[in-house]
Amino acid sequence: MNEERLNRQLMIDGWNQKKLDQSKIRIVGDNERLISLYALSSAALGIGSQRIIAPSLDKKLINIAGNLTEQLDLSHVKGYMTNPEVSNIFSESDLTVLMISYSLAEKIILNKSQGKSKVLIAHTNDEGLELFTYKPGREWAELEQIISKQSFPHKYTSDPVIDIIASGIALEETKRELMNNKSSESIITYKRPVLNDYPLNQKILVVGAGALGNMVGLGLAYSGFKDITFMDPDIAEITNLNRQILLYAGVDKNKSETLALELKSLFGIKPRAIVGYLRAKTNISKYDVVFDCVDNFESRIVMSEKCKQEKKILISGGTNIEAGQVITYVPEQKMKTPAEFLELYKIVNDRKKEYKRERASCVYRPDPSVIMTNQIIGGFMVDSYRRILSGDKPIKVFYESNSDSKIEVV
Q1: Of 63, 163, 228, 289, which residue is most buried, by most CB within 10 angstroms?
Q2: Selection from 166, 174, 171, 172 nearest residue 146 by Cα
Q3: If pLDDT is split at 50, 70 and 90, which confidence band does 7 have?
């Protein structure tokens, strides 16, 4: 079953799943949500062994990880990393991941790793994220920009949507290190002002309950939105579960209904589900915003045209195995729709063939796919919407896993 679940990433040229299966990662942190999201996504990717030192984990997310893969080998030592002797459990680590807010633990692990192993450092807060991979041979001066300013364990806050994005980028860097591919040599950053208070009573339509829809739904729920409707006609399959992590209990069931039920269980909200397609005649008048989480250009064109016609905010996301983008449309700004900006009309016309979609795309077009780009872009879609509600101008986000900076915001 695990090989079938991972089928879409096994199709990627040069993919080494055996390496991931046999890898041992060690995680130290004090951000329950960030660590748990990273552990869940790592399990979805098929990483074999995780050892965690942290005060606590989100049991619901960890349970989902266990339900996704029977092969998961995860253990948790409860507490803070303050004793150098405790770090001996990391001696056999292929990669150590620090998701921590105080420098004592960072310095202990970095001292232990000198000349031996690689360390991925990930920081999040209410304003953004920073990630950096330390490798033996680098000067300590390079670390000064990212080592925590706080020396000892302390209370702090982080933004849940930033945590979703950061855990996805951290997993991409993890995958690259474990497969001996080139990772970023600079500090990966995303910064924005702390968000102003924004209304949570927005009526939200999420079109597509697959990989992007899962992450958008998770981000919206974490942000406090409750009036969410998911629209999708498709049935979940085992091959979806390497990236559609909230559908683990929904194989052979409708995606939108399963996603709504899972978010109800996780957050106590009551999302709605619509089994069907968004078409030109679909009534979207009652919604304040539409999230485009579909995997085909024809449906994205329909959404662009409807939101332009009915003056609705549109947050459009697209991904492949290495990259993705978020294009926002706010009708009052008199800007191009996502379909216009991305020139989707030309792409569709150039195909010179009739479009017909009657079944889940994964069935008739089994494209390779991974969790990371969907996690990152899904998070940015929600953050882009919250920035609009907070009074910020609409943004476009471009993510490229092969670039050093990874993220471009314009």
Answers
A1: 163
A2: 166
A3: very high
3-state SS assignment for residue 370:
coil
Mean pLDDT of the chain: 92
For residues 337 and 334, what is the distance between their CA atoms, to the nearest angstrom?
9
The torsion angles phi and psi of 286, rounded to 5 degrees, stand at -85, -5
Answer for the pair 39, 26: CB distance below 8 angstroms, yes or no: no
- The order of strands in the sheet holding 272-274 is 272-274, 228-231, 204-207, 289-292, 313-319, 323-329, 396-400, 407-409
| SS3 track for 322-366 | CEEEEEEECHHHCCCCHHHHCCHHHHHHHHCCCCCCCCCHHHHCC
Q: Residue type at 130?
A: E
User: At 108, phi and psi to the nearest 5?
Assistant: -60, -50
Report which secondary-structure segment, H or E, holds 167.
Answer: helix 160-178
**Cα torsion through 175, 255, 226, 308, rounded to 10:** 90
CATH of 2-191, one of 3.30.1330.40, 3.20.20.140, 3.40.50.720, 3.60.15.10: 3.40.50.720
Nearest to 271 by CA among 253, 258, 287, 284: 258
pLDDT value, residue 139: 65
Tens of pLDDT, residues 276-308: 999 999 999 999 999 999 999 999 999 999 999
Q: What is the pLDDT of residues 113-147, one digit of tens each?
A: 765 678 999 999 999 999 999 887 666 667 788 99
Is the separation of the CB atoms in 103 and 150 below 8 Å?
A: yes
Class of domain 204-409: alpha beta
Task: Find the helix or strand (DSSP H, E) in which 218 lies.
Answer: helix 211-223
21: helix, strand or coil: helix
Residues in Cβ contact with 272 at an 8 Å cutoff, skipping those fewer than 6 apart: 228, 229, 230, 260
pLDDT of residue 118: 87
- 356 pLDDT above the threshold of 80: no
All CATH 3.40.50.720 domain ranges in the chain, comma separated: 2-191, 204-409
Q: pLDDT for 80-102, tens place per residue?
A: 988 776 766 667 789 999 999 99
pLDDT at 355: 47
